[in-house]
């Protein structure tokens, strides 16, 4: 996989519908909002105010907030890599997305307030991620060792998370993305199929 970020013009969606979905999540599902707890070892990341909503969970109880990644010590996890347990957030835009991409997992909304920084790290090479920005600013960056990208609202982007990558929100507003994982073995299908969410 010889790329870092690919803009996916073959994935079409109604941005207004996504914004309306996000607004409902914020106003009606505060109980499912996850924030970084103080006792979690975030190493050198600056993520103290980061928040997210899991649309697909990996917890035995999908009615409680689910972290966007595996945290050691949690004993109520079904399978740390599964992340496909439905939550109450599968409605509207999210329901259409999962019907369009039925094998996706770890679908979530991730919010990075100003100052949030996730240091460079690789994920496993079994999955890649698609990001759809909902809110951003010109100084919110997706970073690699030698290059950084500002992902624009209104487009979907495939991210090669198998190489060193991170984020850095140097702006004055939150950076909020809808994110989902797909199997890296499906990359050719994702790149060559026209999708309408």
Structure description:
There is one protein chain. This protein has 197 residues and is an alpha+beta fold. It has a single domain, classed as Jelly Rolls (Sandwich), CATH 2.60.120. It contains 3 helices and 15 strands. The protein has a 7-stranded antiparallel beta sheet with strand order 1-12-9-14-7-4-3. The chain has a 4-stranded antiparallel beta sheet with strand order 8-13-10-11, with no helix packed on it. A hairpin with a 3-residue loop joins strand 10 and strand 11 (148-149). It is globular and about 40 Å long. The model has no long low-confidence stretch (mean pLDDT 90).
Task: Offer a quick outline of the entry.
By secondary structure, this protein is of the alpha+beta class. The protein has 3 helices and 15 strands.
Report the biggest beta sheet as strand number plus sense, adding barrel if it closes: 7 strands, antiparallel
Mean pLDDT: 90
**Sequence of secondary-structure elements:** EEHEEEEHEEEEEEEEHE
Give the CATH level 1 class: Mainly Beta
Based on the structure given, which CATH architecture is correct? Sandwich
Separate helix tally: 3
**Helix/sheet category:** alpha+beta
Radius of gyration: 16 Å
Which segments are poorly predicted (pLDDT under 50) over 5 or more consecutive residues?
A: none
- What portion of residues is helical? 10-25%
Query: How many domains would you count in the coordinates?
Result: 1
Please identify which CATH superfamily we are dealing with: Jelly Rolls
Total DSSP E strands? 15
Beta-strand percentage range: 25-35%
The CATH topology assignment is Jelly Rolls
Shape: globular
Distance between the termini: 25 Å
Strand order of the largest sheet: 1-12-9-14-7-4-3
